């Protein structure tokens, strides 16, 4: 089962693939460091451009960006208390106080080493878990896939945190978008208004670029960021080989946070930011000196940064084996695979083992590269990069978006569609509607409908076909747990509060 | 690329010369209604490469992908293009004509000049090796014993997979439950996981899965050279023939001399050994027919689609 893994290794070491990975990691760190730009956005803008590239080169770029961005977010989080990506919020808690104490350099070193550790653990989890899982997934028929999709939708609505009603509305919008086009069974037109371009439904990359890239770019142009107070001038950096031994005492936190990150990554719905928060809280709870947390405890940076990188490759486990992405980034990566004619699912491991296993190696190497690229040499200069003129940056991204979306099918219709979604995304952003449920609503909604109808056809209209085996029942139980769990928890907390008051 | 550039230059500098005299004097495009990398696209690119040689005189042939709406966007583009010989297209039977029945289309069987068909990939009746069905007869018996209990996975409704299932059901007098998946590979995965009992995918879809799938019959008039061990349905007593055809068409109303020139060039393409070996390597079973014979096949396929639509409309 794992022999393909070894056989794919020579391919990955080809210089073009390594170069792609290096460029990806560097670009990822830059994108992650720019407040407002996220890995999701960078990869969705990139995907249409990768069509002419070899699959592994394209995937290497994506893997590199993903890993790089998860660390890059820590740079402004530490130096400016502005999380570069949502997943770096927990990094600000202790990273910024450290920078104020003149230990910003050390904080970033802890961040980069922890990120690399998390990324490597995640890649290894992907390597070990995905191949055996891909064999089992043949057992997932339409009924089971339907439940996986329902479970994913419920978890993104209820586990994302924040307002459940808004999450639900976002998800419903995504599901509605999934309905556009010809229906999956009979091919009846739905909401196409006679446009042939809409008959195949709305391409995920068009929606992603519109939702994830346009609003932050408008934001970028709207609000010039003040960076004068950057703590970056007094980093107090020591060479990383000297500080590394001091970090070894974090080993427990590293392992715990990596496991949390991997677990959150596999679960559909939740993403890097939730992994970072959970692992920060767990690490503080088990710390002997919880009072130092929030006042510049390096272990807090380690906890948050390990977990948000440990989420990366693990998020691809359900995506590659079942074809069901759990996060927005995994969804675009699947889009990237599809553009290269690689159909995710059990057949991927059989038909294209060199590519799918090469992709896993790239995640591992990307994480290792992080130490060298993000580590000692770059940190100082990256802090200065935040002072890049933002209007310039914004216009470059807009041009890339327009060209990229046009090139998917070679038609302007898609560009207008993307701009429309951009406008919707901007309004949603301002009204604080979460965006991930829209993306997963589009993908999982489509999956749920198609597979429900297939299952009912197989069962000749008998709904019991959905509850016929153990796998289905387990998935139903998980779904119920995700929906009811938080409510019960809230109830209990309220009760406790009431009791302690009384 | 350079060739294209020179051809364009030549075309630009000789605008006063009547175009017909030296057709082709600019690049010929082959419109493919599917994404790059798919079966039809791969065929179009192979044909384009050898087409340039066959036409000679530095002719340039470019492939343009216009994916969408199950190929309809591409087919419509070809049907509505000027019949000047500079726009050709790939043509998939029966899909291209079947979709004129189940939705509004701006073309029909008479909108095209039929140049040549290259690929003929026969449908099959196929089951999982673990299913316990060893012969077509056993499958038919099971369906007879409990009508509708045998599920049949298809790549879609309104295509050759669907028509195959319909025709087999008619010929054997049993009822199958049709389950249209989203594409052939989804249908195959479901078959391998035994979520459906049988399938009608084309033979080329089964060749790299001989350990998992058992092909019970191939729906063609003679056995395939790829799988000579598999009997035809005809041998088993059911005269059912259905396959996926891929060829090259032009808009209707093409000038006779251009039509003649293109058809001759395509016949030359088919005769080239390199082309044949390339197609074989891609797993594309060739069955070359040109001109009137191709047109007759298209009309016949159109009739099959119409009669199935009239008897059992699928939407």
UniProtKB/TrEMBL annotation, chain A:
Q: What is this protein called?
A: Putative tricarboxylic transport membrane protein
Keywords (A to Z) from UniProt: Membrane, Transmembrane, Transmembrane helix
Record-annotated membrane-spanning stretches: 12-33, 45-66, 106-129, 136-161, 167-186, 198-218, 254-278, 313-339, 359-379, 391-409, 466-488
Entries under InterPro entries matching the protein: DUF112_TM
The residues forming the signal peptide are: none
* Domain DUF112 per the UniProt entry, residue ranges: 19-440
Organism, per UniProt? Cohaesibacter marisflavi
Q: Which domain of life is it from?
A: Bacteria
From TrEMBL, chain B:
Keywords from UniProt, A to Z, are: Receptor, Signal
* InterPro entries hit by this protein: BUG, Bug_dom1
Q: Where is the signal peptide?
A: 1-21
The record's section on Gene3D superfamilies has: Bordetella uptake gene, domain 1, Periplasmic binding protein-like II
**Which family would the database say this protein is a member of?**
Belongs to the UPF0065 (bug) family.
Quote the PANTHER family the UniProt record gives.
BLR1237 PROTEIN, TRICARBOXYLATE-BINDING PROTEIN
- How is this protein named in the record? Tripartite-type tricarboxylate transporter, receptor component TctC
Which species does the entry assign this protein to?
Cohaesibacter marisflavi
Q: What is the lineage of its organism?
A: Bacteria, Pseudomonadati, Pseudomonadota, Alphaproteobacteria, Hyphomicrobiales
